[in-house]
Design brief:
The chain is mainly alpha-helical. The protein is 53% helix and 8% strand. Strands 1-2 form a two-stranded antiparallel sheet. The longest helix is centred in the last third of the chain and has 17 residues. The two termini are 28 Å apart. The mean pLDDT is 77.
Length: 128
């Protein structure tokens, strides 16, 4: 089994366990940085992203439809900002100008699929 596969397996196992927010996120960051690297960009995740108890985001377009009450990734310090919900809400937006300039051949359907895949990956790590 490759290091990437081992890391994914450990991260998936983490999401199936009921751990404290701090313990779960420290474990996640350790495994993620162990697999990737400790660059400034990667290390900044600790300041901006957390893994812990989720609550429904009252600002989302789908508020109340599927209330969050499990564990998952969220913006640090805001338990009402689940990243999977955020990514889902981005689906269907026009390709931002700077992305379109960098990837001029990118079609809207391809951009939407990238966002959908990202949403599904974050949902994979949610635990109810």
């Amino acid at each position: 089994m490759s290091n990437k596969q081992k890391t994914f397996q450990k991260l998936f196992e983490l999401c199936q366990e009921k751990k404290s927010k701090d313990e779960a996120f420290e474990y996640f960051m350790h495994e993620l940085l162990n697999w990737s690297s400790d660059t400034e960009e990667n290390l900044s995740l600790k300041n901006n992203i957390t893994y812990g108890k989720l609550y429904d985001n009252p600002y989302t377009k789908n508020f109340g439809e599927n209330p969050k009450n499990g564990f998952g990734f969220a913006v640090n310090g805001n338990k009402h900002f689940p990243i999977a919900t955020f990514m889902n809400d981005l689906e269907g937006i026009p390709i931002p100008k700077n992305i379109k300039e960098f990837y001029p051949e990118l079609k809207q359907s391809e951009f939407d699929s990238i966002l959908r895949l990202t949403t599904l990956i974050f949902l994979l790590f949610e635990n109810e």
